[in-house]
Design brief:
The protein is an alpha/beta fold and 345 residues long. Helix content is 39%, strand content 14%. Helix 1 runs parallel beside helix 2, helix 6 packs across helix 7 and helix 8 packs across helix 13.
């Protein structure tokens, strides 16, 4: 299915409110594929979003699920005290949960969502088989060739290959707790080539893609589609907060990988909270996510998780359908130039 998209552009699932039924529907209307983000939503809220999306479009769309990880044994009392001293709001209590994974999995099967993707780990082979029986295409997010091989073994239909340039959370299966990205970092082109040498599955490329030339680059490198998140954050259809939009529009902050906001490596705009907690943030997800949630909700851009890819400053606000159309035109132009450059004299 993914290799038969009218336009090889996918709107990434962006948990926390940025992904909306309207955004998904508009990207689909433009010929691409949009994703809803199940992460952090209640099962009821996810059901409402799926229902709203199907009311807006008859095009296929996807839903992304967070695969739950192990409980952390780290003592987070010290980090909570640290965060409390930096914020006008009392931090939350650190706790583990599975993001209602099993119930959400049952929901997407019951509602026959066309594409179901997984981040932070692998679905088990039995669930992949059940998803296939429900007519779903199964996609797994990977960051290394080793993860790609594991995903192929459980029966994934396609892989979303995430480069280190990507905004938001890294999709690594396991966080080593030491390196900034939780493990070895590959740029999206390097990751594509290494994964392609390891598995023979359709590949979606993601990470720092904001221009049609980026789409052309990953398609020629072996991807069947390009997945973009940051490029859609400033569309009117996205649920991006006003403070986040403003920070993106200013385009003056650098980006960095950090565990400060959630306990899992993620790329965002550098602000005071990130700087002050970069070295002390423990590898404990989702415990740290719940701890910092009230602080991030204050709306202060110096305390928020302002997720963004490395090329965010190149993004310009426009309706989602216009973004897709522009990407297609730019990709065609880039390919035309490339063909001219490599044509024999």
């Amino acid at each position: 299915m993914l290799d038969r998209l009218e336009v090889p552009v996918i709107a990434a699932p962006m948990a926390g409110g940025a992904s909306t039924p309207a955004l998904v529907a508009e990207v689909g209307r433009a010929g691409g594929l949009g994703f809803l983000a199940a992460g952090y939503l209640s099962v009821e809220a996810l059901a409402e979003q799926i229902t709203a999306t199907t009311a807006l479009t008859d095009r296929p769309f996807g839903v992304n699920l967070f695969v739950p990880g192990p409980r952390s044994t780290t003592d987070l009392a010290g980090y909570r005290e640290r965060v409390a001293a930096q914020s006008p709001t009392e931090p939350g209590e650190p706790r583990w949960d599975d993001d209602s994974y099993a119930a959400k999995l049952e929901l997407v099967m019951a509602l026959r969502v066309p594409v179901v993707s997984f981040t932070f780990g692998l679905p088990n082979p039995e669930d992949v088989h059940r998803l296939h029986a429900a007519g779903a295409t199964v996609v797994v997010t990977v960051t290394t060739p080793q993860e790609a091989a594991q995903a192929a073994q459980v029966g994934a239909d396609a892989l979303c290959v995430q480069g280190s340039e990507a905004g938001g959370h890294r999709g690594t299966f396991a966080d080593d707790g030491v390196s900034p990205g939780g493990g070895e970092l590959y740029g999206v082109l390097a990751a594509l080539r290494l994964v392609r040498a390891k598995v023979d599955l359709p590949l979606i490329a993601t990470g720092g893609l904001v221009h049609g030339a980026d789409v052309a680059a990953v398609i020629t490198a072996g991807a069947v589609a390009a997945q973009l998140g940051t490029a859609f954050l400033t569309t009117p259809e996205a649920g991006t907060s006003a403070a986040h939009r403003q920070a993106l529009a200013e385009g003056t902050r650098r980006t960095a990988l950090t565990r400060a906001f959630s306990g899992r490596p993620a790329r965002g705009l550098v602000n005071r909270f990130l700087v002050e907690n970069q070295e002390q943030a423990p590898a404990a997800y989702p415990e740290v996510h719940h701890l910092t949630k009230p602080v991030r909700a204050t709306g202060d851009p110096e305390l928020m998780s302002l997720w963004a890819g490395q090329t965010y400053a190149l993004v310009r606000p426009a309706p989602a359908a216009e973004v897709v159309a522009r990407l297609v035109a730019e990709a065609r132009q880039a390919l035309s130039v490339a063909i001219t450059r490599i044509s024999p004299v």
